Amino acid sequence: MPQPAALLPQAPAAPGRVTCLDGLRGVAACAVVAFHFFYAFTPGRFADKARTSFSLFDTPLAVFWNGHFAVAVFFVLSGFVLAASAPTGPRAAPLAIGLRYLRLGVPALASSILAWAWLTGFPDAARDAQAISASPWFRWTYQPPIPPLGQAIWEGAVGVFLNGTTRFNNPLWTMQAEFLGSILIYGSYAVLKGRARPLAMAAGLVGFAALGLFYLSAFCGGALVHEARGRLRDHATGGTAAGIAGLVLGATMPGHAGGDGLLPTLASWLGADGARQAGAILTLIAVLITPPVRRFFETAPLQRLGELSFPIYLVHVPLIVAPASAIFAAFAPLSPVALAGLFIATGLATLALGQLFLVTVERPLLAALRAVRKRGRARRLAAS
């Protein structure tokens, strides 16, 4: 499975939208960009079991570049929002699931075509950068000869949902997980009512974790938080404690080597699957019940990042493996200052290209899906 890439698309908005979660999603998107950029060009500390000494990677500060944790947060957020927008009965479920596929598949297709164009324009960039940085992350990107456009279209629209991977735009591996999580939540909510829903989500949270399907456990955890939202009350102290616990459990970068003694063993467990998803659930709860934190994520800049989150997710890796890699290879070795400058330039380019994607793909698609959903709802009412 490719390295986490990040930001997953949000489900259709429901009445009473929780806007602070949009800000959280935007911040996580930025962490994902940092994760992929530095894993590509400074891979040493990102490799599995590579760290033996204590560093910032072993602290909650790693949340700013921990793409693994960001993916867990995105799955938990998806579970929460999908539960809020779930169909009210079996008759509505097929349309909801079909629209969900389009919500994921159309942008995935557009991003796959975009990635093909970047790779075709810079066919040797990823290979040259990998030769210098020796990053294993580049193995998830096509090397020359670049496959034809038809294959990019197939993988973006269908292949990623069947195989869970593509080497045109490796973040699309999450599309399969996202669609399966959507079927899980929408299907469950279509047939279950009342108290059966939280009981089913609690069972899924534990059961899928026991089976090692932690991504589905994260979806159930997010839906369970949604079910409990009416009982959650603002509590700054409790929310702060939950947030700290969540970041310690999940935001700590995985990959610390285990060893003798309690502390090395604990360090090797933090941030791994299971702990990561538990930390993401606690982080969601913390944001919901801690007023200062909630207000921070509701600020205008973070709301703007939230709106751009899915486009950022879709466009940032093609920029890294094509033009950024070409610059890295042409001017290597880069000083820390030069590498920081390349990171800033890549980030700004990601925002600019993300804005273009938002206007040309994201917003028109959302408008079309809303119209289809409204028409389907009207037909069901007329038939009832």
Automatic annotation (TrEMBL):
Molecular function in Gene Ontology: acyltransferase activity, transferring groups other than amino-acyl groups
Pfam families: Acyl_transf_3
Keywords tagged on the record: Membrane, Transmembrane, Transmembrane helix
Domain of life: Bacteria
Lineage: Bacteria, Pseudomonadati, Pseudomonadota, Alphaproteobacteria, Hyphomicrobiales
Residue spans crossing the bilayer: 24-42, 62-89, 101-119, 172-192, 199-225, 278-297, 309-331, 337-361
Name listed for the protein in its UniProt record: Acyltransferase 3 domain-containing protein
Residue stretches making up the Acyltransferase domain: 20-351
